[in-house]
Amino acid sequence: MCGIVGIFNMYNRSTVSTKTLDRMNESQHHRGPDEGGLHVDSCIGLGHRRLSVIDLSTGQQPLFNEDRSVVVVLNGEIYNYRQLIPELQALGHQFSTKSDTEVVVHAWESWGEKCVERFRGMFAFALWDSSKQTLFLARDRMGVKPLFYSYLPDGTFIFGSELKALMAHEGLMREIDPCAVEEYFALGYIAEPRTIFIGTKKLPPASTLTLVRGKGQVEPKPFWDVRFSLDNPISEADAEAELLERIDESVRLRMVSEVPIGAFLSGGVDSSTIVAMMAGAHTEKINTCSIAFSDPQYDESDYATAVAKRYATRHFSERVESDDFDLIDTLVNLYDEPYADSSALPTYRLCQLARKHVTVALSGDGADEMMGGYRRYNMHMGEERVRSLLPLAIRRPVFGVLGRLYPKADWAPRVFRAKTTFQGLARESADAYFQSVSLARDDLRLRLFSDDFRSKLGDYNAVEVFRRHAALADTDDPLALVQYLDLKTYLVGDINTKVDRASMAHSLEVREPLMDHTLVEWLATLPSHFKIRNGTGKYLLKKSMEPHLPHDLLYRSKMGFRVPLAAWFRGPLRARVREALLGERMLQTGFFNAECLRMIAEQHEKGRRDYSAVIWELVMFDGFLRSMESGR
């Protein structure tokens, strides 16, 4: 795992500033503390920070082809590089290293832009072909590895693995994008391709960007998508067997390493599955790492310990106290732009623990999205059955009125919390799902934002992110649709972002076997009743793992990686909440309605409403503004 940066003078041959390039590169030192390298050649400059995992002795970057006409910087891993090397050698290419990075330069020479279709892995890379005066950038199919870029007003193109690398360039514009603010408060993150700054973007997953000197700006091109065909005629028994075979193969592929390797073990189904597969693929003891919480309401450590004992792993566990909120400012600086998943706190601690013992860790991320693990999927499918009975022309006025009139009841049992359900039934499927996952829903954002800020937004609503993806989903199956939406939004913008920044902060490489694109493609062919059945999520995975994991672990209620925000904001963080929500910094932006901010703070403090998710968004946004003030 590494960090990459670059500067490309698109319209002239003025030499790239080595000083600026080095400053951008060193801003990401944490991503690759082992080595750093720069390449500057007239109009192009590439930088790389290396975390050594494969080919420790000769895998330095930037890396060249035989005649040095092609040079690449890569962040990530090409897992099938060993299979590609003999194929490329047969085409006449000579290899001087044993690294996966060298596969990229030779694959480009043979297959051009289509080389990415041959790669199986997690990656973001930039390649300069001097003979063609072409810069080629690519990002992996599932968006595991990040890549930010910006076209500067003077014709310079810059890119980096993190936004902080671009912020190290004096020419980057730092004007906040109102649409990004709208997306952030709706979702808790800023969805691809947008960033917090106007003119700066994220390269979308499964996309490439090809720039030719003198030809001007271009848009990214997709090279892959997943299609939920749901038409696989396989029997349940055969599907169970094949699922295990595919997971086992994906795990084995990701265990190739020349440094210590281990796994995250939360005690949930997904991470426990990975550990079970690793134990079967490895003759030595597996290293496993888990976080225990002092608050039993959030603690899964007993389940993690049981799995560790079953597979005789070398298990490491540390306890996180229920008041571990000192990391807030650290997270603000880590994520560069507003980001509001509070599970980033324990994830940071888990990566910190893991790095003490391993350099590479396997995780179970991706299972919920592809195998139907989220509780919200069941609720959406129930609403969808009602929506299918009544046309929108009837649902919209009837349930719209009920949604407006029914009181908000966060305190009540779920069966009585019907306001959100009524609001969902009054919408189309994608709009309803957006409403269900929003942290600050439409009605609250309407009150939260000032009149002036809403005028800057115009007609833009973050639901457009979901509508854009839904138009490409190519399915009318209710579960498949929301799975597709989560793959394109939540998985990339939230989960992958969280894990990448938290792990890279500790120079830890995290690999996700359940996000292997060949596994994802196969799961998308399975009918939805293999994923959710009789209210049981991840049905096929759980059935297939029954011989390998305890029944009570497989079928217990999903807990998640949570922290006690509501209690923090009424107790030890009460003063910080008031400072963030009621201080001058937030009001000076002109974005917010002061009365709404006061209402949120007071009603949560008095226990009248649980605004913890929105307060966390506001606290993190205030932290971002503070970091901007400091000139970071």
Précis, in short:
The chain has about 625 residues and is an alpha+beta fold. The protein is built from 28 helices and 17 strands. It folds into three domains: about 1-220, Aminohydrolase, N-terminal nucleophile (Ntn) domain (Glutamine Phosphoribosylpyrophosphate, subunit 1, domain 1, 4-Layer Sandwich); about 235-370 and about 495-555, Rossmann fold; about 565-630, no CATH class.
Number of helices: 28
Largest sheet: 6 strands, antiparallel
CATH topology of the largest domain: Glutamine Phosphoribosylpyrophosphate, subunit 1, domain 1
Per CATH, which architecture of the largest domain? 4-Layer Sandwich
Helix content: 40-55%
Structural class label? alpha+beta
Looking at CATH, the homologous superfamily of the largest domain is Aminohydrolase, N-terminal nucleophile (Ntn) domain
- The count of strands amounts to 17
In spatial order, strands of the major sheet run 2-3-1-9-8-10
Description:
With 632 residues, the chain is α+β, with helices and mostly antiparallel strands. The chain has three domains: 2-222, Aminohydrolase, N-terminal nucleophile (Ntn) domain (Glutamine Phosphoribosylpyrophosphate, subunit 1, domain 1, 4-Layer Sandwich), CATH 3.60.20.10; 236-372 and 495-554, 3-Layer(aba) Sandwich (Rossmann fold); 564-632, no CATH class. The chain is 43% helix and 15% strand. The protein has 28 helices and 17 strands. A hairpin with an 8-residue loop joins β11 and β12 (221-222). The longest helix is centred in the middle third of the chain and has 18 residues, at 236-253. The radius of gyration is 24 Å and the shape is globular. The chain starts with a strand and ends with a helix. The model is unreliable at 411-416 (pLDDT under 50).
